[in-house]
Write a structure and sequence with these properties.
Elements lengths: L10 H13 L2 H8 L3 H15 L4 E4 L2 E4 L1 H25 L7 E7 L1 H15 L6 E7 L13 E5 L8 E8 L1 E6 L6 H5 L6 E3 L7 H9 L7 E3 L2 H9 L5 E4 H4 L5 E3 L9 E7 L7 H13 L4
Parallel strand pairs: 3-4, 3-5, 8-9
Antiparallel strand pairs: 1-2, 5-12, 6-12, 7-10, 7-11
Helix pairs in contact: 1-2, 1-3, 1-4, 2-3, 5-10
């Protein structure tokens, strides 16, 4: 390819490049941009001709960004953040914060920690809205699939801005009306409710397999909220986070906290986004109100 003389990238071209880097396909990039895939294809071709070099490697799996494309995407993210901040400043009153904040976490954290905190924040910033993603997979902050993530991890990604919110502690519980005793658990005569293969590395799974290797759970589910509700109904015993179980009169602990299940809780966001008013307001509020001992 031969670069056109004095070719200059503009904001529109950077927006197309950023959408392609984030999504990896023409169709998904077009959906983000509000255009069809052929429009995105032609735009990428024009940019590559202008720069005199290919920016993406085409394959059946999609478009893989080159180092140049990734570098341009970083600059595009800065432009995006600056434009969003400018729009927010012109459309909002000085004391008003508007917009949508996307938050990703597990259903456990969303139900037990995040939603109560957001309900307390809502009267202060009634114009804020939220998109909440509950899942065990780590939604990408780098691709801007989410603005804020709350995750249980001992190794938060170094490229993100983060704050530790405390330690997640767990214990073995049963239903308050379930007469099962710890002796029955030890002898293998208790029914279990446990996470399924969607959470193979969950601390509670590792603990159970180490200390009760012969146990075959009666109920295997893909959500700790479901573990909690089934245990509370008397369906069996299960390992639960203490912050989720405390205050529940229908649960009864069978052990103290299990040190091997301890995990760190982290509040994470992208360094290029943290200064946006809407994200800074929610991030700061969660940092102040979501605290585990």
């Amino acid at each position: 390819m031969i670069a056109q003389t004095q070719y200059r990238l503009g904001a529109a071209e950077l927006e197309v490049l950023l959408a392609m880097v984030r999504t990896g396909t023409l169709a998904a990039a077009g959906e983000r941009l509000g255009v069809d895939a052929s429009t995105v294809f032609r735009a990428i071709q024009r940019i590559e001709r202008g720069l005199g070099q290919p920016l993406f490697e085409r394959s059946r799996a999609g478009y893989r960004a080159s180092e140049t494309a990734l570098s341009l995407a970083e600059q595009a993210e800065r432009v995006e953040a600056a434009l969003e901040a400018a729009r927010a400043a012109t459309h909002a009153q000085p004391e008003q914060i508007t917009g949508t904040v996307r938050i990703s976490s597990t259903d456990t954290m969303l139900h037990g920690l995040i939603v109560p905190a957001l309900q307390a924040l809502q009267p202060r910033h009634p114009a804020l809205t939220y998109e909440l993603h509950a899942g065990n997979e780590l939604v990408s902050l780098t691709r801007r699939d989410t603005d804020i993530a709350v995750r249980a991890t001992r190794r938060p990604p170094q490229h993100l801005v983060g704050r530790q919110l405390g330690m997640i502690r767990s214990a073995l519980y049963t239903g308050a009306a379930n007469p099962v005793a710890m002796s029955q658990v030890e002898s293998g005569r208790a029914a279990w409710v446990a996470p399924d293969d969607s959470m193979p590395d969950h601390p509670s799974v590792r603990w159970r397999k180490k200390h009760h290797p012969k146990v075959q759970p009666t109920y295997r589910v893909n959500s700790l909220i479901t573990v909690l509700e089934l245990v509370a109904r008397g369906a069996g015993v299960g390992v639960l986070p203490t912050f989720l179980a405390q205050g529940r009169s229908d649960l009864r602990p069978l052990t103290g906290t299990l040190a091997e299940c301890d995990n760190e809780l982290w509040l994470l966001t992208h360094p290029e986004s943290r200064h946006l008013r809407r994200i800074a307001a929610v991030y700061g509020h969660l940092a102040e109100t979501v605290q585990l001992p």
